[in-house]
Write a structure and sequence with these properties.
Elements lengths: L4 H12 L9 H36 L2 H18 L4 H9 L5 H33 L3 H8 L1 H19 L4 H23 L5 H22 L13 H31 L2 H14 L1 H19 L5 H28 L1 H8 L7 H19 L1 H7 L4 H21 L4 H6 L1 H20 L3 H35 L2 H23 L3 H9 L3 H4 L3
């Protein structure tokens, strides 16, 4: 590998844009964030449309048992991923004086970490397969080690682009990666590869991203394994690492528990219910958080401005998230029938329960970038610990009562985790339960009113005739939901609909930090 001269240019440019020497006007900062939001969230939405379109077709070609086996392998893959050193690379975003040597050290850390975890997964694969009683998991896990080897070549260019709020290049690469994965998934599923469709396609997507990002940023450098002087990277990276570890306990403990108790078919049904219920908060919010972190980092010395930006952003995001989840809960049956077909008729009851928990989960993950930006990464660690304890205990206690109980327990665990997050974060960013309630009363109240109107119309007016045609049934309910939500919001705050439109167009949220 060769150290391209563009690295030096990138570093000097990033230093010039840092908080200590930039002197940028608020209008220019708002423009930078606006463009970042436009490219990052816009490309994410486009990429997800491609991915979801492919997923809907693939789900009709594969069996629930294929998704169950994949979910079993994904538990170990997810747990080891938190060791991949991504947090060490993320620490570069917060550094005020970024040097070439620091980038090389982060690259070396990533290479070493991923080589170790790939080796660990290779040799641990038989033990995992024995736990689930599914021998095919051995081969799946060993092939999936190729994902780890791509991580160092993704993390460094992503961080350099994120630090400068250059999300355009990432957007183009992510689109190419999504398109490649979608096409490959369809080909493999159609050709009868079964569960291997779910294994091979992500690996190819990761490597397309790795190659594309390095071509865009031209930042491939020699790694350095001399880690002297990078204590700040270690401290920040370890905090992120532990946060991810506990987050993974929270998010993967359900599959770990039910994977041994239920059949691959049942595990597949549950895992796809989670996929559908978490689409918004798992796909739409994280890209906004990626932009929010460097944006909040520039406001780390102005806590009132950061707090105001956080509350405004949270309100705007929930203006979309809350009605989406409420609508999903009251339209689960026609939604599943329309999107997935009769093979997945066991999904709706699970989705109905999970959807009511997702607004709490959405709000909870908005706190991390603000806390990291003010130099308090230990607080997300504590909230992640709380989430791991709450959710693991909930899943362990409910699994013996069946899959429906596991889905229903989300509605108790998610509010508890949000409450714990608010209480733990209050000393750092000054936002309590009362302030959060004031910011969210419009989206939450309007969404509940909308859900009641849709549910009443579905049960008392439409009747069984409309339900015979799932697509038409869903279309009527969605139209009624959108109209009733818009009416309720307009009656409560006539400016709110304009703000929602601005968020969809990625303008208002971008301007908020300025």
């Amino acid at each position: 590998m060769t150290e391209h001269s563009s690295i030096a240019a990138a570093v000097s440019s990033l230093q010039a844009d840092g908080p200590s020497g930039s002197g940028l006007a608020n209008s220019r900062f708002a423009g930078d964030v606006r463009r970042a939001i436009l490219w990052r969230s816009g490309s994410q939405i486009a990429a997800q449309i491609i991915s979801w379109s492919s997923t809907l077709i693939v789900m009709r070609l594969l069996a629930p048992a294929d998704y169950g086996l994949f979910a079993m392998s994904l538990v170990m893959l997810s747990f080891l991923t938190f060791l991949n050193g991504y947090g060490f690379a993320s620490a570069l975003i917060q550094e005020r004086d970024l040097t070439r040597q620091r980038i090389r050290q982060a690259f070396g850390l990533l290479l070493a970490a991923n080589a170790v975890i790939a080796t660990l997964q290779w040799f641990a694969a038989p033990l995992v397969a024995a736990y689930y009683g599914q021998p095919i998991v051995i081969d799946m896990l060993r092939v999936q080690t190729l994902i780890y080897l791509s991580t160092p070549f993704i993390a460094i260019p992503e961080v350099l682009m994120g630090r400068s709020l250059d999300f355009r290049s990432q957007a183009l690469v992510n689109m190419a990666s999504a398109m490649t994965g979608a096409v490959l998934s369809l080909i493999l599923a159609w050709a009868g590869y079964g569960v291997w469709t779910l294994v091979y396609a992500p690996i190819v997507m990761f490597w397309v991203r790795a190659i594309g990002l390095n071509l865009m940023v031209r930042a491939l450098i020699w790694p350095s394994f001399d880690f002297r002087g990078c204590g700040s990277i270690f401290r920040f990276g370890l905090a992120i690492l532990f946060t991810q570890m506990f987050w993974l306990v929270q998010t993967q403990s359900d599959i770990f528990v039910i994977g041994r108790r239920f059949t691959p078919h049942e595990v597949g049904v549950y895992s796809q219910a989670v996929f559908l219920a978490t689409i918004f908060y798992a796909r739409f919010v994280p890209p906004l958080n990626e932009v929010a972190f460097p944006a909040y980092a520039r406001l780390q010395d102005d806590l009132p401005a950061l707090r105001a930006a956080f509350l405004k952003s949270a309100r705007l995001i929930m203006m979309i998230a809350a009605p989406v989840y409420a609508g999903m809960a009251v339209t689960a049956s026609p939604l599943v029938a329309t999107l997935f077909g009769s093979t997945w008729q066991e999904l709706p009851p699970l989705v109905e329960w999970m959807a009511w928990a997702m607004p709490f989960m959405t709000m909870q993950i908005l706190f991390a970038p603000a806390l990291n930006a003010v130099g308090k990464p230990e607080i997300p660690v504590r909230t992640a610990m709380a989430g791991a304890v709450i959710f693991a205990a909930a899943f362990l206690g409910s699994a013996r009562f069946g899959l429906l109980a596991v889905a229903a327990v989300w509605c108790a665990a998610a509010p508890l985790l949000l409450l714990a997050t608010i209480m733990l974060s209050r000393s750092a960013i000054g936002i309590g339960v009362a302030a959060m309630a004031r910011a969210l009363r419009l989206p939450v109240g309007s969404s509940l009113a909308m859900a009641l109107i849709v549910w009443s119309a579905d049960h008392w007016i439409l009747g069984e005739t409309a339900k015979a045609a799932p697509a038409l049934h869903l279309g009527v309910l969605v139209a009624l939901g959108m109209a009733s939500y818009a009416a309720v919001v307009h009656l409560a705050d006539r400016h709110a609909l304009g703000q929602i439109l601005q968020l969809v167009r990625r303008k208002d949220l971008a301007a908020a930090p300025a």
